[in-house]
């Protein structure tokens, strides 16, 4: 499947901004199942400095600096990707989760060594006794890892309420656990804490999810949004992406942009600016199938 993504972020300032420096993680990365065909980021006003680099996690990062007075900033990212749906085995034939933990601790395979970073706590995903307690029913002794991870995903979907008004990007993990509510970012963080608390490698994934309107209805432009989910490493299979917000494994309608330890590693747009006073932020995202009517 081919998907085209348009992501427009606009800041409107009450006072002029004299200088800004920003980092954008808006270009999709290539994976085993995803190939980026085209990707570009346009900035208005035109930046005095613009360059691209690959960060520690292999994500594409665009740096830009605007060195002229401006009252608004608009960043438009457009990309086209080709995605192949994954094929997973029957979850019950995957190895016991304790065996995967041992492999992560003692294995000499390069992928396992690299994945050890994702077994550790991070700024937004500290080790949590509450997360461990929540994970316990899913990770019974000897349970196959994929079966356990799918069960954890399903319980997160059932037990947590999607509530965009409850959390921000800085809401602590334990507050999300205590109130059992939040958004996709929060659900991914809870899953990461639960998996890492067991000694498993789990990473945060940011990207987009294609949504389809009900039959007979037109798709609303700009109505899609950035999305987040988690991935767990299973030896022999690789990274398996799971979406607790929608209780499903990621298929070909999921576009991967960046991976990291938590949201802080993959924020779509962040930076500093001088002036501006207050600002209004608007974001519009469209995900469309290429060649689809």
From TrEMBL:
Start and end residues of each Transglutaminase-like domain: 176-246
Which SMART domains is this protein grouped with? TGc
Q: Where are the transmembrane segments?
A: none
Q: What superkingdom heads the lineage?
A: Bacteria
Query: Which Gene3D superfamilies does the record match to this protein?
Result: 3.10.620.30
InterPro entries, per the entry: Bac_transglu_N, Papain-like_cys_pep_sf, Transglutaminase-like
Query: Sorted alphabetically, which PANTHER family does this protein's record hold?
Result: BLR2979 PROTEIN, BLR5614 PROTEIN-RELATED
What protein does this entry describe?
Transglutaminase family protein
Species of origin: Thioalkalicoccus limnaeus
Task: Output the lineage of the source organism.
Answer: Bacteria, Pseudomonadati, Pseudomonadota, Gammaproteobacteria, Chromatiales
């Amino acid at each position: 499947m081919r998907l085209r993504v348009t992501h427009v972020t606009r800041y409107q300032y009450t006072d002029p901004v004299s200088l800004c420096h920003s980092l954008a993680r808006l270009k999709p990365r290539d994976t085993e199942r995803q190939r980026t065909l085209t990707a570009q980021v346009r900035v208005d006003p035109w930046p005095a400095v613009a360059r691209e680099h690959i960060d520690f996690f292999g994500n594409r990062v665009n740096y830009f600096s605007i060195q002229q007075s401006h009252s608004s900033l608009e960043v438009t990212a457009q990309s086209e990707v080709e995605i192949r749906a994954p094929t997973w085995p029957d979850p019950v034939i995957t190895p016991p989760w304790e065996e995967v933990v041992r492999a992560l601790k003692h294995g000499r395979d390069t992928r396992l060594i690299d994945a050890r970073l994702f077994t550790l706590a991070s700024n937004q995903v500290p080790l949590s006794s509450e997360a461990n307690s929540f994970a316990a029913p899913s990770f019974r002794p000897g349970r196959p890892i994929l079966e356990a991870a799918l069960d954890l995903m399903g319980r997160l979907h059932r037990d947590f309420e999607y509530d965009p008004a409850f959390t921000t990007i800085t809401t602590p993990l334990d507050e999300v656990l205590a109130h059992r509510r939040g958004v996709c970012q929060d659900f991914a963080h809870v899953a990461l804490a639960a998996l890492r608390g067991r000694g498993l490698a789990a990473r945060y994934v940011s990207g987009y999810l294609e949504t389809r309107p009900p039959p007979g209805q037109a798709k609303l432009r700009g109505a899609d949004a950035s999305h987040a989910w988690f991935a767990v490493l299973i030896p022999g299979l690789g990274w398996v992406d799971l979406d607790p917000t929608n209780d499903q494994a990621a298929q070909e309608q999921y576009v991967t942009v960046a991976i990291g330890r938590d949201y802080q590693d993959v924020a779509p747009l962040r930076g500093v600016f001088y002036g501006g006073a207050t600002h209004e932020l608007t974001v519009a995202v469209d995900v469309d199938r290429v060649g689809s009517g």
